[in-house]
Amino acid sequence: MKLPALTLLLLVVAAGPAAAAPEDLANEVSAEVMSPYCDGVTLHDCPSRAALELRDRIEGWARDGWSKSQIMAELEREFGPGIHATPQDKEGVAAWVLPAAALLVGVAVAAALAMRWTRRRGAEQPEPVDPSDHARVERELAALREETP
Fold first, then answer.
1. Is the distance from CB of 48 to CB of 38 less than 8 angstroms?
2. Of 2, 107, 120, 138, which has fewest CB within 10 angstroms of its CB?
3. Measuring CA to CA, how many Å separate 96 from each of 91, 93, 117?
């Protein structure tokens, strides 16, 4: 009795991703590719008529049973590798690592400069006050105190 229920549960769980609606797959793909018709905008956000037609084509491919990887491969074949909104594995990790490395280097340089500047200020001693100047300031302060009620 437990075996059929477990088998049914496994079939439902395994079929979940495969049973995604074509509209959902089309929306997912269109959010992950850049629009060939609107610069700097994903296909999902491009308002042009051509973008709408391409989204309809993608949905048609999904209705025909194409997988996400098949749709992405077709889009890349048709529009080139620049269609991807994010860097792909085959483009190398440099697309992700170089900006992070530049940020780390910038933080390290800023920290080193900050430490250098604070050490320099801490190492500087103020010039000693001439005793005659000190005595003059004290006299003037005492005179001001006497004038104030």
1. yes
2. 2
3. 10, 5, 33
> Residue 103's pLDDT is what?
92
* Domain 2-86 classification at class level: mainly alpha
Count the alpha carbons within 13 Å of 127 in the hemisphere toward its beta carbon: 5
Contact between 42 and 29 under an 8 Å Cβ cutoff? The reply is no
- State pTM to two decimals: 0.49
Amino acid at 26: A
Sign of CA dihedral 103, 43, 32, 76: negative
34-67 confidence digits (pLDDT tens) = 999 988 889 999 999 999 999 999 999 999 999 9
pLDDT for res 1: 46
Residue where the block lists tokens 């437990």: 2
* Domain limits, the chain: 2-86, 94-147
The amino acid sitting at 83 is I
pLDDT < 50 regions, the chain: 1
Q: Answer for the pair 84, 33: CB distance below 8 angstroms, yes or no.
A: yes
Q: Check residue 11 and give its pLDDT.
A: 55
